[in-house]
């Protein structure tokens, strides 16, 4: 049995034809491969070998309970950015002491709930956040373990919306200001300083920005050690890219090897927070062609999935491969694959050379990360179903929303 991989070389879990999945579960529909998710998680875990480490899946990439529970059973940790993600991880059976809480805007109630649950560490993104965590922890008579997320001013060379490590970005604490904040943290009685955290962006296709950032982080760790502030772990964030079309990102092995070479004999636990590299090429979005609409300038294939289901093309101009479930003979035409939403930006792909007919089933590849999690009810469209394929079986891990769900919690004016 073979499935997908980072390079997206295989499309579907072979044991079940996607046509059957579409019949059973309807379209649009997200389909995930259990074997691929597991293989990708193990690839990171194995890559770090005997070095003490924790792979914390970035929940924002895919927060389906089926996906999270599968990873929890492998022993995965989780990187969360909200109390909503925390509750999902706990509901999926994730271990609290393997949860890392990132994000620039943690609310007091979120901090309280995370402390109550017993998470492993807060990645602190500003001095006022540090003070808030200390206050909440003092109020609860707990000690909060923290890392400071530093901003090393390194260009991830990714899309500007998903680059996070430049000094003009809102993320992290300027690495030059970080020492003073560490000194403050070390002096707070309800704070335990454990690590340094750094995440410079997503969909990185080269190693050098990661290594530049690591150099800055290691230099900071050395300066802190001189001041008596011992660092136990380095959290290097997520960000390793995947192949959507023709990218050739490094594999986890190569990444880990380069990290290890830099780390040498240092006694530091490594935490990684991969999201996309685990889930991206473990999922596809199935959609059906509703209408073909050739016009004098463009051929539009109107499909039943839209920007509310998969936002990446509209938001970032992202290109994801789109392939028909059944290949038709004939001369390909350039088709714009568009959804029913009332926006010109509602497209899944542009000028794709395909032979199409009304009713055809298409798969948008590499949709397992930042697909469903970024979906919305725009145009009052119900969210798609999510299905997990496991060998020759498939089960629904989230049903398609019913129309009544869309207004169940609203009320008319009295
Ligand atoms: C703090 C943090 N950790 C981890 C991730 C996961 O990133 P990726 O899906 O690129 O691995 C992100 C998103 O970029 C993030 O902001
Ligand atoms: N949503 C983005 C990635 C954001 C990463 C979150 N820090 C994408 O689809 O590429």
From TrEMBL:
EC number: 4.1.1.20
HAMAP family recorded: LysA (MF_02120)
N6-(pyridoxal phosphate)lysine PTM positions: 60
Name of the protein in question: Diaminopimelate decarboxylase
Signal sequence region: none
Alphabetic keyword roster: Amino-acid biosynthesis, Decarboxylase, Lyase, Lysine biosynthesis, Pyridoxal phosphate
UniProt record similarity statement: Belongs to the Orn/Lys/Arg decarboxylase class-II family. LysA subfamily.
Record SUPFAM superfamilies: Alanine racemase C-terminal domain-like (SSF50621), PLP-binding barrel (SSF51419)
Domain Orn/DAP/Arg decarboxylase 2 C-terminal: 29-368
Enzyme class: lyase
Residues at which pyridoxal 5'-phosphate binds: 239, 273-276, 370
List of residues binding substrate: 276, 312, 316, 343, 370
UniProt organism field: Thiohalocapsa halophila
Orn/DAP/Arg decarboxylase 2 N-terminal domain sequence ranges: 35-279
Record-linked PROSITE patterns: ODR_DC_2_1, ODR_DC_2_2
Pathway assigned to this chain's UniProt record: Amino-acid biosynthesis; L-lysine biosynthesis via DAP pathway; L-lysine from DL-2,6-diaminopimelate: step 1/1
